[in-house]
Amino acid sequence: MNHDRYDDDYIAAILGDVKTVALVGASANMNRPSYFVTKYLAAKGYTPIPVNPGLAGQEILGHIVYATLADVPGQVDMVDIFRNSEAALEVTREAIRLKDKLGLKVVWMQLTVRNDQAAADAEAAGLRVVMNRCPKIEYGRLSGEIGWAGVNAGVLTSKRPRLGIGFQNQRISTPKSS
Q1: What is the pLDDT at residue 178?
Q2: What is the domain-level CATH number for residue 159?
């Protein structure tokens, strides 16, 4: 797969399919991107699972932090990597080793994180891969919410948005094929 560009349907299918997201490199610091991605995903109905060995046993936004992916007791649909590009390879290899135990479907690498070897390994193991993207931004872009901040979402439609519960809460329309 070409990881320089992703079709909107590919991203929407992933975001529509996953329910639980392990955020590797999660931070309790409210000024860090991983903190507000955790908060946003929880508000959209995902179950975030923070993973950070330095914070293991503590809570981030009411969710218990685990030291490693191997310590996560339940199912994980997607691993969201908040580590640098070099570290993403080892995180991805750990995710591949635990793929069956966790029920893993997707490896997602955050903005500025790209490791082509990790992507090739994950795809060879049957996982979908996204690199150098943020699920919070992609969700906001595909749902139209990002337009509220004056950002061009790059999506033109005459369809009414799918509304979620709460004030100004839109949902992604997933492709029919998924």
Answers
A1: 43
A2: 3.40.50.720
